[in-house]
Write a structure and sequence with these properties.
It is built from 5 helices and 12 strands. With 186 residues, it is an alpha+beta fold. It has one domain: Jelly Rolls. β1 and β2 form a beta hairpin. It starts with a strand and ends with a helix.
């Protein structure tokens, strides 16, 4: 289940939670964050490579490309046995910004996006079929959990793809991890 919790940036213990898709979309739309539910039911082998995944979701990618000028599209696939899973998790957990607008389309698994906007922190638990954007220069971080199992198509408006400028803030350390967030909302 997709969940949005809105916290004051200085109060990671209490927030207002939304589970209704329309309410989540409404709250995020006010921030210029796109949030949609897409069909992600294409059955692919577990070892499907990036080219196979992108071809399978070509219609969805083409739909987005009509709206935006994407210059880089890739797939991030991280599972429990990924050799770089801990390094990737730590990198994404550090609050950062991107100069470009980016989109994530979850085709498998789940992840927790945190958007830090106007003294609030928006925690968005995204799952299979969720599409979320991060506006340019929006401080954010992402947690894939201690035992990740996710595949996302990532779309960027710059050809270099994922390029982060880290803010140096330690705010992400104060907020629940993916695993803690899921446990609190079970």
């Amino acid at each position: 289940m997709t969940i949005l919790t809105i916290y004051a940036e200085n109060n990671p213990d209490h927030g207002e939670t939304f589970t209704d898709y329309a309410k989540i979309k409404e709250q995020l739309s006010a921030l210029d964050v796109e949030f949609e539910r897409w069909n992600a039911h294409t059955v692919l082998p577990a070892a499907a490579d990036q080219a196979t995944i992108l071809e399978a979701y070509k219609k969805s990618i083409d739909k987005l490309s009509k709206q935006y000028t994407f210059k880089s599209i890739d797939v991030i696939s991280v599972h429990q046995d990924h050799p770089e899973r801990d390094n990737l998790r730590q990198k994404f957990l550090a609050e950062h910004i991107h100069d470009d607008f980016e989109i994530r389309f979850f085709i498998q698994g789940k992840g927790l996006f945190y958007l830090h906007i106007d003294q609030k922190v928006y925690a968005v638990l995204c799952e299979h079929g969720d599409l979320i954007s991060v506006p340019s220069n929006t401080p954010h971080w992402f947690d894939m959990g201690a035992e990740p199992d996710l595949k996302c198509i990532r779309l960027f408006t710059i050809k270099e793809g994922w390029v982060a400028s880290f803010t140096g803030s330690t705010i992400s350390q104060s907020f629940p991890s993916l695993d803690e967030f899921v446990a609190a909302h079970s």
